[in-house]
Specification:
The chain is an alpha/beta fold and 414 residues long. It has a domain at 268-408: Alpha-Beta Complex (Aspartate Aminotransferase, domain 1). The chain has helices spanning 4-7, 12-18, 45-58, 74-87, 98-110, 125-132, 148-151, 174-181, 194-197, 231-244, 250-282, 308-314, 344-349, 366-379, 400-413, and strands spanning 91-95, 116-120, 139-143, 156-162, 186-189, 207-211, 225-229, 287-291, 299-304, 319-320, 330-332, 356-360, 395-396. A 7-stranded mixed β-sheet has the order 1-7-6-5-4-2-3, with helices on both faces. The structure holds pyridoxal-5'-phosphate.
């Protein structure tokens, strides 16, 4: 093990390719090994009893050889180490999906009797649904950031938000919200920004959630979720993961570790293309509004004057599919797919208009993407009408309050 690596601060780009792999050269290896074992032999049951007791009591990562695949896995542990380094946290705990990761966080808090969650819309549709339906026995209060303090109760176990949010790209001031939360843990879903653009823990968040399925994997071929946090919270998450079984498959752990190596390069390249597409979309008469965060990034959302379903049907190079963060570009209609499960009124009041399209910009050449988008927009037809032509089309960098203005503006345009 190269202990220097753990003490000398390293830049994000360096961590991306080295974190979680610092021991490889000493093992005579270059690529990380994949350990697919579900169980591990041990001739010393007394020692195993002690180790299992220690895990049951503390949730600390098992020392020594692994015991069973639901407890821990060496390949997944490499991914966890690497992600923690990128997010600047003590620990990270990986799960089978982003939803499994959120479920574990909610179970940790509700098992302490803290069943109330304060959350800011919009969230990814299924996260919204998990909270709103109270599937895990939790109760949610939906608020604007300014109302978080008033919504916190003695049994509030979590404050949750996404920034930039899915799908409107609304941004929130993490530090200001963390200050309001006080001792209540603030969970920030950092799936859209990734640690390349934003490290929520540096701004006071206690928990950072990722759908690792997206940018962390980066190639549309692996599902996973991860929570980056302090070791105290990580211990509770390990215990919940062991008891409920939402583990990441080791092959997924391997693919996620490999994905992290190119994360900074992918995010920066796709973000540059996205910014250029935003510039062109903003000037396009077929587009009513473009949503793009001040933070930047590779996600773009825009509202069209024409039929959004025809735009989806019209793409040829861009893949018409839900999900995001892949090397290739994807486009989808949130009101039909990613946020379909959210009640129409709740969707609309959080800025998810029926004319909104969400695009995940990949690594293709910008001219090829623009050509495809242009043809698809023509398939969706109407350009700005004479009535609306006087109103300047602009890019909005939606803060939470602004998303209300966007919605109102959109109604006026119809
Ligand atoms: N968080 C965000 C922002 C997402 O976009 C998604 C999925 O789209 C999730 C969480 C859930 O992740 P998963 O699909 O890996 O369960």
């Amino acid at each position: 093990m190269n202990t220097d690596a753990l003490t000398t601060p390293r830049a994000l780009a360096t961590e991306a390719v080295h974190a979680g792999r610092d021991d490889l050269a000493g093992l005579g290896l270059h690529a990380a090994p994949i350990d697919l074992s579900t169980t591990y032999p041990s001739y010393d049951s007394r020692a195993e009893a002690d180790r299992i007791d220690a895990f049951a009591t503390t949730g600390a990562q098992l020392q020594g050889p692994p015991v069973y695949g639901r407890l821990d896995n060496p390949t997944t542990a490499r991914f966890e180490t690497a992600l923690a380094r990128l997010e600047g946290t003590e620990s990270a705990i990986a799960f089978a999906s982003g939803m499994a990761a959120l479920t574990a966080v909610l179970l940790v808090r509700s098992s302490m009797g803290l069943r109330h969650v304060v959350a800011v819309r919009p969230l990814y549709g299924c996260s919204d649904h998990l909270l709103n339906a109270g599937l895990l026995g939790t109760e949610v209060t939906w608020v604007q950031p300014a109302d978080i303090a008033a919504a916190i109760r003695p049994d509030t176990g979590l404050v949750m938000l996404e920034t930039p949010a899915n799908p409107t790209l609304a941004e929130a001031d993490i530090q200001a919200i963390a200050d309001i939360c006080g001792s209540v843990p603030l969970l920030v879903d950092n799936t859209f920004a990734t640690p390349v653009l934003q490290r929520p823990v540096e701004h006071g968040a206690r928990l950072v959630l990722h759908s690792a399925t997206k940018y962390l994997g980066g190639h549309g071929d692996v599902m996973g979720g991860v929570v980056a946090c302090d070791e105290e919270f990580a211990r509770s998450l390990r215990q919940v993961r062991f008891a409920t079984g939402g583990v990441l498959h080791p092959l997924a752990g391997y693919l996620l570790l490999r994905g992290l190596a190119t994360l900074p390069v992918r995010v920066r390249a796709a973000s540059a293309t996205a910014a250029e597409l935003v510039r062109r979309l903003t000037a396009d008469p077929r587009v009513a509004r473009v949503h793009y965060p001040k933070l930047g990034g590779a996600m773009v959302a825009f509202e069209v004057y024409g039929d959004p379903h025809e735009v989806i049907a019209g793409v040829r190079l861009i893949t018409p599919a839900v999900s995001l963060g892949s090397v290739d570009s994807l486009i989808q209609h949130p009101a039909s797919i990613s946020h379909r499960i959210v009640a129409e009124g709740d969707r609309r009041s959080s800025g998810v208009s029926d004319r909104l399209l969400r695009m995940s910009v990949g690594l293709e050449d910008v001219e090829d993407l623009w050509r495809d988008l242009c043809e698809a927009l023509s398939a969706g037809r109407p350009a700005r009408t004479a009535r609306s032509a006087g109103r300047a089309v602009r890019t909005v960098h939606p803060g939470r309050a602004e998303s209300e203005a966007v919605r109102t503006g959109h109604r006026a345009a119809r």
